[in-house]
Amino acid sequence: MPGLFENTVSALCYDIARSQSFDAAPYNDVTAFVLGQWGRMPRFLAWPLRFATIFFACSTLPGGLYHRLPYERRAMVIESWRLSSIGPFRDLIRFYRSLALMGLYSREGAVR
Fold first, then answer.
1. H or E element: which one contains 51?
2. Does 55 map to a domain?
3. Is residue 110 included in any domain, yes or no?
4. Could you please report the per-residue DSSP string of 52-99?
5. HEC letters along 11-41
6. What is the pTM of this model?
7. Is residue 112 part of a domain?
8. How many domains does the structure of the chain reveal?
9. Quick check: 109 pLDDT over 70?
10. Using one digit for the tens of pLDDT, what is the confidence trace for 36-75?
11. How many CA atoms lie within 13 A of 95 on its CB side?
């Protein structure tokens, strides 16, 4: 059963893919790709990334956890972190955006 980390990564992957105007949902394969890359990271990198992702998920409280928010609100949260003056916030979004897009565009039949 997925936890907060996995649900947040899944919501991020779906939101990033949807922002690219891809109609080929679901994006479970993109989520699996991103989680697979996280699983292959050395633990000294993977665990801080996990904690940063959970912090990101909780940053929307008291309005609710990130993955439970409506799509429009989640898109605003991603954009605010992407444009943040705090470097690690921007880096976290850049990391997930890069991996999600890599997984999305490496799909069979993806428009290149």
1. helix 43-58
2. yes
3. no
4. HHHHHHHTTTTS--GGGS-HHHHHHHHHHHHT-SSHHHHHHHHHHHHH
5. HHHHHHHHHCCCCCCCCHHHHHHHHHHHHHC
6. 0.90
7. no
8. 1
9. no
10. 999 999 999 999 999 999 999 999 988 899 999 999 999 9
11. 18
